[in-house]
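Morning - fe (ii) ion inputs below, output right after.
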Amino acid sequence: MKFKEGMLKAIPFICIFIITALSISRLIYDGYSIIKLISSTVLLLIMIGVAAFYFMQYYEKKLDIKNYQIMLWVFVFIGYIPSLMLSSINPYLLPILLTTALITSMIHVRLGFILNFVMITLLLITTGISVEIYLMYVVVGSFISLTIPFAKNRQQVLYVTASNMFFFMLLNIITWLIAFGDLVEYNYLSLVYSAFNGVLVVIFAVGTEPIWEMMFSITSNARLIELSNSNEPLLKKLILEAPGTYHHSIIVANLAEKAAIEINANYHLARVGALYHDIGKINHPEYFTENQKGKNIHDELSPDASAVYIINHVKDGVVLAKEYKLPKDIQDIIREHQGDSIVSYFYQKAMKHSDGFEISDDDFRYKGPKPQSRESAVIMLADCVEAATKSLSEGNRNLTSISDKIDNVISTVISKQQLNECPLSFSEIPIIKEAFLTVYNGMYHERIKYERS
Ligand SMILES: [Fe+2]
Ligand SMILES: [Fe+2]
């Protein structure tokens, strides 16, 4: 199964390389013709589509493919069409790297990296730019796709812009030397063009992020980082009105982020999703133990009335998230974080006082859906683990007991089939557990031995 999946992942990349190599060799040996140019363009455009489709199917199952496909084509044409027209005027000012930068920052680094190569090869075939210009754009584009993700605050934008500018200039000189062997006839003005191009790419990609987010309802990492700021209105409200829940959410966020890093999921999304997962508790903070001081309001309520308040925090959270315009990914996490599990404490309490009457577990069940993404699943696990470890008595709270608790919680969540609808694999479960333990290890400043089972 693993081999088959690996092969499926590799197919588009193998195809791209074979077709590109064939196209280039034909071009070199046969010279140009209009039919050849058109057919090469069509073929490589198809390959971009295939590569993107495969990427989204097998690497990022969570992506809304339709939405991302449209955005991808918009980005491809923003950089590619003007580059076609400019190639004969000034090959150093081609905006093709705008596409690389936009795909990298808005969709995925790996996709930006691959399509950079595909697009520039397409440009080489269809416009006849020289091989040294081709090499320059391939290498600078790869560099941009690796550095753009680091441009998240003003200082980082400055560093990334400067490094791209200098790298572009350096490659300009190196590729010229490769082609001509000396700088006797070197066009020094091309250095200025390269510098300008390098600066423009970063500024444009970073500056237009909010436009694409709005147009395509996409959540960029920059937006997620903004949302994790405790001055964000909804988070501020949580801190003031439900401080216990905020404290719980911080621990869940630390656990979920670490686990997401280890399994290669979107850790920004996991962190921010965890910070907001219980936002619905703001409506009735006193109904949740973490916010209670002494008095327990549930002592005066029937178990089914209590369950209604508890269950409604999911629905209330989604309403608040929509009202405060949180991204759809975060809304989904809020909606899914309890799955369709049962509020077992109040269900047990109801059973105990049923006096022989039948109790329907549906009245004590969250309405779902179950987690649909790996980030959502990780947050569900982190949430359950945090609640369970908190229930350990102060004297009994050490890393060994926490490790046992984590095992217990994960088995329970799996046995209740809450992870059935998400693309989390069984091999990732021990990695998640170890990540959780690392976070608790940091909190308790102890070390325990843990062997993977
Ligand atoms: Fe919750
Ligand atoms: Fe929670």
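Note: The chain has two domains: 2-216, 223-444.

O.
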